[in-house]
Amino acid sequence: MPTYCPFCGGRLIYDNRVRLYTCQSCGVTLTLDEIVMEREKLAGLARGSDTKKKEAQGYLKWWLSSKKQSED
Ligand SMILES: [Zn+2]
Questions:
Q1: Does residue 51 lie within any of the structural domains?
Q2: Which residues, given as ranges, of the chain have pLDDT below 50?
Q3: What is the mean pLDDT of the chain?
Q4: What is the pLDDT of residue 51?
């Protein structure tokens, strides 16, 4: 059960009459599907950037070490 806003982390209040979650902090209204979607999007972005960063670091290390070896 999602209770926190995917945008600001504020508390979401469920309104039975309109079947929407309203954020107490930023005032955004979301359906359950939208909350799940936004969370997955954010989680995917976080994972993606992390992997890219690690790949870049690994490549740099390899490039530096291979350069050193060829100079020796
Ligand atoms: Zn919010």
A1: yes
A2: none
A3: 85
A4: 66
Sole residue written with tokens 């209040």: 13
Query: 7: CA distance to ligand 1 center in Å?
Result: 5
In a domain, 34, yes or no: yes
Write down the pTM of the prediction.
0.57
Range of the domain at 58: 12-63
Q: What backbone torsions phi and psi does residue 22 show, to the nearest 5 degrees?
A: -115, 130
Compute, in angstroms, the gap from residue 40 CA to the centroid of ligand 1: 16
Distance 14 CA to ligand 1 centre (A): 13
The total of structural domains in the chain comes to: 1
CA–CA distance, 28 with 10 (Å, rounded to integer)? 10
Grouping H, G, I as helix, E, B as strand and the rest as coil, residue 43 is helix
